[in-house]
Amino acid sequence: MTNYLDFEKPLAEIEGKAEELRALARSNSEMDVVAEAGALDRKAADLLRDLYKNLSPWRKCQVARHPDRPHCRDVIEALFTDYTPLAGDRTFGEDAAVVGGLARHNDRPVMVIGHEKGNDTKSRIVRNFGMARPEGYRKAVRLMQLADRFNLPVITLVDTPGAYPGKGAEERGQSEAIARATETCLSIGVPLVSVIIGEGGSGGAVALASANRVAMLEHSVYSVISPEGCASILWKDAEKMREAAEALRLTAQDLIKLGVIDRIIDEPLGGAHRDRARTIADVGKTIEAMLADLSKKDRAALILDRREKFLRMGAKGLAA
């Protein structure tokens, strides 16, 4: 069953009518609905194309948050072999919002780390909806340092509304843990590539995405704050999230122009959730291409490449 977004309601009605006709035909073999159902299918395809032809930033946020979108664990299961998950930060405990471990990508040993939101009510609660606590970022630091020690490329998959803002997380040093993870990203001497597969929210995303190369799925978003949070601060009204989304320049198309990301991965018409297998395969091809781009750089060159990438962002902004 397809989960439709608010702006897809007209599409839901047309596709629903087509399915009703087919259901009637299945219950009565004498009914011929091929022509009528085909006409509705064509109408639905045209409407889907029109809806996704020029999505607004707010609608992209909705697509990025779609519950059926491929999540971190889906990507790991499809693209990596010999995956061995590693748990705990060796300081406080385990955080299920951040997953990671040793694996092989196209038979190359790597370390893969990412945010996991969960795919149903129970798992979303366990995963804290992808919002990591300090121990999640400290686990990421531990895994990145392990990869650095054994000269393994690091691949990160980002999908989080942001770091968890709860009292306990702040008491255990949330901001320090995020800063330490960001520092580790910038200092390790192995290739580090990142893909924003859904939401890239605030420092919670930057902590895993301060990489040599950053790619985004076409309808994913990456911003300093959520549109709702921004609207609450600037206008004291979370309902102004549409205006906030426009102002934040959070789409992949905006961010590649600003030099914040390096690649955009096309999504199937209607979003990644409409063809998960194709989307994941394209993520895999992009990861392979980004790693190949970095393969001839030595330790010092990789660190310098990362440093210059982020310094260029500021210089570009000042020049503008």
Give descriptors for this structure.
16% strand, eight-stranded mixed β-sheet, 2 domains, 8 strands, 14 helices, 2-enoyl-CoA Hydratase, Chain A, domain 1, 320 residues, alpha/beta
Written overview of the protein:
The chain has 320 residues and is of the alpha/beta class. The protein has 2 domains: 49 residues; 258 residues, 2-enoyl-CoA Hydratase, Chain A, domain 1. The protein has 14 helices and 8 strands. Strands 1, 2, 3, 4, 5, 6, 7 and 8 form an 8-stranded mixed β-sheet that branches. It is globular. The N and C termini lie far apart (47 Å). The mean pLDDT is 92.
State the CATH class of the largest domain.
Alpha Beta
Given the structure, what is the number of helices? Answer: 14
The description of the largest β-sheet is: 8 strands, mixed
Radius of gyration based on Cα positions = 21 Å
Summed over residues and divided by their number, the pLDDT gives a mean of 92
CATH homologous superfamily name of the largest domain? 2-enoyl-CoA Hydratase, Chain A, domain 1
Could you say what the CATH architecture of the largest domain is?
Alpha-Beta Complex
Ranges where pLDDT stays below 50 over 5 or more residues in a row are none
How would you classify the helix and strand content by structural class? alpha/beta
What is the N-to-C succession of helices and strands? HHHHEEEHHEHHEHEEHHHEHH
Write down the CATH topology of the largest domain.
2-enoyl-CoA Hydratase, Chain A, domain 1
Q: Estimate what percentage of residues fall within beta strands.
A: 15-25%
Helix content: 40-55%
Instruction: Give the CA-based shape.
Output: globular
- How far the N terminus sits from the C terminus, by CA atoms, comes to 47 Å
Based on DSSP secondary structure assignment, what is the total number of beta strands? 8
**Domain module count:** 2
